[in-house]
Write a structure and sequence with these properties.
The protein has about 300 residues and is α/β, with parallel strands linked by helices. The chain folds into two domains: about 5-180, NAD(P)-binding Rossmann-like Domain (Rossmann fold), CATH 3.40.50.720; about 180-290, Orthogonal Bundle (6-phosphogluconate dehydrogenase C-terminal fold), CATH 1.10.3660. The chain has twelve helices and nine strands. The chain has helices spanning about 15-30, 40-50, 60-65, 80-85, 105-110, 160-170, 180-205, 215-220, 225-230, 235-245, 245-270, 270-290; strands spanning about 5-15, 30-40, 55-60, 70-75, 95-100, 120, 125, 145-150, 175. Helix 4 (about 80-85) links the parallel strand 4 and strand 5. The longest helix is centred in the middle third of the chain and has 28 residues, at about 180-205. The protein is globular and about 65 Å long. Bound molecules: NADP nicotinamide-adenine-dinucleotide phosphate (NAP).
Length: about 300
């Protein structure tokens, strides 16, 4: 579709699920003239080489970002500060530094101070992912029809912002712009809390003495398995998300705990009306997500009835 490069050279610092998917999506529409990838483990570099989504692969940061017009941090958020400090002296004047991290205020705090004068800095977060990791997990369609949120700090140049918007649109995304703090609160309820609940419920089931592990697995189709998909997400990435979005997560967790106590009370006192009303309200939310094109209406989450 779009064959005019939005940026000449794009440097991906991190080529796991998100970095490699960006590379595939860039190639699909000629969004960049040159895609450079950096990763720190030789094993990951080899895997990336065998998949073949980059024009050049690097184990040194300086070589990867040299002459790049767009530099994307796509590693766990906890690594950003050190990486930003290391790439800073090698950035081209007029380049844009961005990221894909799942939290945004902490990224501005950790990366912002290292970005040199004359280089743009526009954090971003594609709301798309799977529970898979690594360069072999990426695919070009990951961002299609999904939102990407940009959180430009005050004073960001409009031209640089518009260019990054066009970049994400060319990758298949719809783009929204918001303040980093607001992003963190929205994501705390839509992504971070659901992950915390999934990690917790799977952990609780694993710890239950009266129900055996084999029974938990055998009867998982009752609902449990849908939590296990989320709870299989990368431990490093999610540790960093909770450490770096502490305030917003604690705020929504407080609300969640209160609402859970209310449910507990409704069950204890046999308040069927309260339970029915809540479950009716939540069913409607599911319908609006499908209507907004953010999931399929296929029964059973699109799974075939019989296991293949
Ligand atoms: P991933 O598949 O695990 O890939 C992580 C990449 O970061 C790999 O290239 C890895 O290199 C590199 N890396 C890890 N630790 C590093 C370190 N200490 N120094 C330098 N490089 C390091 O992860 P991902 O799912 O693509 O996630 C990357 C970012 O995207 C995270 O910030 C996450 O918050 C964000 N994000 C993820 C999702 C999702 O669903 N997965 C969605 C939206 C945003 P080696 O393999 O060589 O160690």
């Amino acid at each position: 579709m779009n064959n005019t490069p939005v940026y000449d050279k794009v440097a991906l610092i991190g080529i796991g699920l998100i970095g490699s998917s960006m590379a595939h999506a860039m190639r699909r529409r000629g969004v960049a003239s040159h895609i450079a990838g950096y990763t720190h483990r030789a094993e990951t570099l080899e895997k990336a080489r065998s998949v073949g989504f980059a024009d050049s692969l690097h184990s040194d940061l300086a070589g990867c970002v040299k002459d790049a017009d767009l530099v994307v941090l796509a590693t766990p958020v906890g690594t950003y500060a050190v990486l930003a400090e290391q790439i800073a002296p090698h950035l081209k004047l007029g380049a844009t530094v961005t990221d894909v991290g799942s939290v945004k205020s902490a990224v501005i705090r950790d990366v912002g101070p290292h970005v040199p004068e004359g280089v743009h800095f526009i954090p971003a977060h594609p709301i798309a992912g799977t529970e898979q990791s690594g360069p072999e997990a990426g695919f070009a369609e990951l961002f299609d029809g999904r939102w990407c949120i940009l959180t430009p700090p005050p004073g960001t140049e409009t031209i640089a912002l518009e260019r990054l918007k066009r970049f994400w649109q060319a990758l298949g995304s719809d783009v929204d712009v918001m303040d980093a703090r607001h992003h963190d609160l929205v994501l705390a309820i839509t992504s971070h809390l659901p992950h915390l609940i999934a990690y917790n419920i799977v952990g609780t089931a694993d710890d239950l003495q009266a129900v055996t592990k084999s029974e938990v697995i055998k009867y998982s189709a009752g609902g449990f398995r849908d939590f296990t998909r989320i709870a299989a997400s990368d431990p490093t990435m999610w540790r960093d998300v909770f450490l770096n979005n502490r305030e917003a997560v604690l705020e929504v967790l407080g609300r969640f705990s209160e609402d859970l106590s209310a449910l507990q009370r409704a069950i204890r006192w046999g308040d069927g009306e309260a339970l029915f009303n809540l479950f009716t309200r939540t069913r409607a939310i599911r319908r609006s997500i499908v209507d907004a094109g953010q999931d399929t209406a296929a029964p059973n989450f699109g799974r075939s009835k019989k296991p293949s």
